[in-house]
Write a structure and sequence with these properties.
Order of helices and strands: HHHEEEHHEEEEEEEEEEEEEEEEHHH
Strand order of the largest sheet: 2-1-5-7-9-11-13-15-17-19
Oligomer: single chain
Distance between the termini: 40 Å
Structural class: alpha/beta
Number of strands: 19
Shape: globular
Radius of gyration: 21 Å
Number of helices: 8
Strand content: 35-45%
Helix content: 10-25%
Number of domains: 1
Length: 419
């Protein structure tokens, strides 16, 4: 057991609310699992030494912060600053058909809905997810009524500016036939530790457009996950962008619980010198006639290390499943490392599935061509990198988000240049 985890377990004994039964179950599982070491398959390539001996630093101060402006995009903003919710959800101007509340302000019906989903969509295998189960007192519940179509983007931001521990939680329920867009945004570079987990229940014929921008850098340590349960004929379109830091880890689970559900996930991860990013995804096809398309592309800078593990699990009864997984990686130098492991586990015999992974370096010929045309090396690398991820950016449904993202990626590419 690590020093940090022992402190977490001690602190969790003092958390008491309507979620106490779920928190107690998480603590029991956490004690049983213990601290994940290098022999733990899901953490084999991602060292946790920076967390293992960390001292828990609690933050009780409320720090003013605001999420970045995205031009031409209507947004409902919910902001966590260093783990503290600084948005008064009760005063939000909300369109008809959606309600948003803090866990601590939930009425009896909302408490019942939160309890029915808390820790139920996210698998219990996630160590830091269990930590979040036990400690995430600052949580938000978004409930979209059946048949409602919500135009504004509901953005939940986790902003880190102090070297403290922060644990936040998001629960989203889309009623039958509902449509909504949710963005999870995280940013910070100080020596903080953030766990931010979200669980989504997507009802019959409902559609969720989802974004997660995990843009922590520097000394920041962020471990989080987005987890989805799809009902019959439900659809999900998810876009993830992750930067590297001292420790960056995201887990994504998509559970096809109803027939004819459709999921699409595009992921981009960009690592500058000596950074680490780890993306684990698991697609569970538990019923027939489901469709999944997953594309992940990474650019790894000098001395940086990326980990990708993508698993598609086709259960015995999941006939007529169509699933495809593709991971492509670009190394900016031979000191960069990518550990990629696409997996297919199939127990049904009437399915169409494919998976693959590639690792390549910057094309010296293309780079030389641009340099001989008077283009600087940094600009040339930006142009070549843009070409590698442009296809996924172009698939973002909302043009305003794509237009906001492109300059941020350009700046990030400049930071990743091999000197």
């Amino acid at each position: 057991m690590s020093q940090w985890l022992e402190q977490v377990i001690d602190n969790a004994q003092n958390v008491s609310d309507f979620l106490s039964p779920a928190r107690d179950a998480a603590l029991s599982e956490l004690k049983l699992q213990g601290w994940p070491g290098r022999r733990t398959e899901s953490w084999r390539f991602t060292p946790l030494s920076s967390v293992e001996k960390r001292v828990v630093v609690e933050n009780k101060d409320v720090t003013t912060a605001s999420a970045p402006v995205i031009e031409n995009l209507e947004v409902i903003d919910i902001v966590f600053s260093n783990g503290q919710l600084i948005t008064d959800t009760a005063s939000l101007a909300l369109p008809k058909g959606v309600s948003i509340c803090q866990f601590k302000d939930a009425d009896a019906d909302q408490q019942a809905a939160i309890s029915s989903l808390y820790g139920k969509v996210k698998p219990q295998k996630h160590t830091f997810g269990l930590v979040n189960d036990a400690l995430a007192e600052n949580g938000v519940f978004i409930d979209v009524a059946a048949g409602a179509s919500i135009e504004p983007v509901m953005r939940i931001s986790n902003l880190s500016s102090q070297p403290c521990d922060a644990h936040t939680r998001l629960i989203v329920r889309l009623g039958d036939g509902a449509r909504a867009t949710v963005m999870e945004f995280g940013e910070g570079s100080c020596e903080s530790l953030t766990t931010a987990f979200a669980e989504y229940s997507i009802g019959y014929k409902a559609h969720l457009e989802h974004y997660r921008f995990a843009m922590f850098t520097g000394k920041a340590k962020q471990v989080g996950g987005s987890h989805f349960k799809l009902s019959e004929l439900a659809s999900l379109n998810s876009t993830l962008v992750g930067y590297g830091s001292e420790l960056s880890r995201l887990d994504v689970d998509i559970w096809h619980a109803g027939e004819f559900a459709n999921a699409k996930m595009n992921a981009i991860y960009l690592l500058a010198e000596n950074e680490l990013f780890d993306l684990h995804s698991c697609i569970e096809h538990a019923v027939p006639n489901g469709t999944t398309e997953e594309n992940a592309r990474g650019i790894i800078g000098d001395g940086a290390k990326a980990v990708f593990n993508g698993r598609i699990h086709i259960h015995r009864d999941a006939q007529k499943t169509l699933a495809e997984l593709n991971n492509r990686n670009l190394l900016l130098s031979r000191r960069g490392i990518i550990n990629t492991k696409p997996e297919l586990e199939i127990y049904a015999d009437d399915v169409k599935c494919a998976h693959g992974a590639t690792v390549a370096e910057i094309d010296d010929t293309a780079l030389y061509y641009l340099l001989t045309r008077g283009i600087s090396r940094s600009r040339a690398l930006v142009m070549l990198n843009f070409g590698f991820v442009q296809e996924l950016v172009a698939q973002i449904p909302k043009t305003a988000i794509a237009d906001w993202l492109l300059p941020k990626l350009s700046k990030r590419f400049a930071e990743m240049e091999v000197k």
